[in-house]
Amino acid sequence: MARKSRTAQKRGPSANVIATVAVVVLAVAVIGGVLLFNRSDDDNGGGGGGGTGSGSIPAELRTEPDSNTLTEASDGTVTVVEFLDYQCPACAAYYANVTKKLETDYAEEITFVTRDFPLAMHPLARQAAQAARAAAAQGKYREMYHQLYDNYEQWAVAPGGQELSDDAQQAATFFDSYATEIGLDLDRFHTDMTSAATGRRIDADVAAGEKVGVSSTPTIFVNGAKLEPEGETYGDVDRQLRGMIDEALGR
Amino acid sequence: MRNNRLAWLYLVGGLVGLAAATALTLEKLAKLADPSYVPTCSLNPVISCGSVMDSPQAEAFGFPNPLIGVAAFAVVTTVGAAMLAGFTPPRWFRLGMQAGTTFGVVFVHWLITASLYDIHALCPYCMVVWAVTIPLFWYTTLDTLRTSERTRAAGDALAGFHSTVLATWYAVIVILVLIVFWDYWSTLL
User: Is B40 left (phi over 0), alpha (psi -120 to 50) or beta?
Assistant: First the structure.
């Protein structure tokens, strides 16, 4: 045994070290390569996202076949795209003060698309986006969207009302109750929430947002033109947004 | 010599695991005392001890997992210290360590799967436990294989590539983590 292990030690360690280094280098190369490749991919896309003229609206700011839509215009000339995060307080405030009314007032005239942009700082944002996507899979996106924002205080805010909740289990219970209320098949809802397809759709929306320079939520585009709020109050935002839409409608 | 290295691994690995398990236990206690407590290791939705600790998998046997860690890593540390003090474990004792580390490594991989594919969050203290449990199991296994006549040849052959196996093992987990949380990592760039 003594002889055997000595020869093994003479040759063994160096083969081991070489193989170990090879594994590490390979892993680093693969990861680094994919990261670099992805990054340059993003850079290429970023250039195309710059144009916001009405003639060249990037695909990210239009309706796509699997887009979550709140309203659909019969002629489809005006498309409002909102990048939102269901747990973001500003989005909830926009909903309460601006977009909820907009949705009814312009129901037949505009196509209102929402895109997921769950931000990392909101612990339940992605879970909520998954719930909305899972409802969409059963044709009830709009209903779930309303449930999520109408009940924002319930699932998104921690007890005490000061901080955002990070209680995923509690949120899941609430999401189930919303799903039941709007008549979803709960089993399917659960499967769809965590399915790879749901994850991919959310990721695709986030990627689309990044391509067109979205960095915070809510970010709203009207026919590709970004809403840059100028006023101080939600009333000002509401007027500005309606102005942009009316202009696009040719009023 | 070989025993000495294993002893140091037990001592250091045991202490690191013990520290992580203790931290997790303290976080759990703080959270029990105040449900709105945000653990120090909950930084964002991905790096979030809170969501991992609140998952059903965090109490696999009906009580918080870190309690297992506190007990088991204390044993590993003690065994390492005893070996350094001159204790030569008999075969039955080594088999006990093998059983313990095997349970540990299986349990940890079940938790890794849960963390990546069910909970969709990472908990840094838990990852420390992943990182130490794997070498504890691996080197214990090599030791067990090499102390029995029948398996010595296999043990020697594997020992010839001990760190290659370990590096590959880690690399697979790192890559799985990167794949699952891809969009999160890519937003950091």
Answer: alpha
Whether chain A has a CB inside 8 Å of the CB on B149: the answer is no
pLDDT, tens digit (0-9, with 9 covering 90-100), for B23-80: 999 999 998 888 878 888 887 777 888 888 888 899 999 999 999 999 999 999 999 9
Site from A17, A25, A86, A166 to mutate, B interface, most B CB atoms within 10 angstroms: A166
CATH number for the domain spanning A97: value is: 3.40.30.10
**Rounded Cα gap, residues A42 and A131, in angstroms:** 28
Q: How close B58 gets to chain A, by Cα (Å)?
A: 13
Residue of B167, B13, B174 whose CA lies nearest to B79: B13
pLDDT in tens, A200-221: 999 999 988 988 888 888 999 9
Treating both helix axes as pointing N-terminal to C-terminal, what angle do B65-84 and B2-33 enclose, rounded to 10 degrees? 150
Q: Which domain holds residue A174?
A: 59-248
3-state class (DSSP) for residue A220: strand
Q: What's the CA gap between B159 and B156, in Å, rounded?
A: 5
Which CATH superfamily is B2-188 part of? VKOR domain (1.20.1440.130)
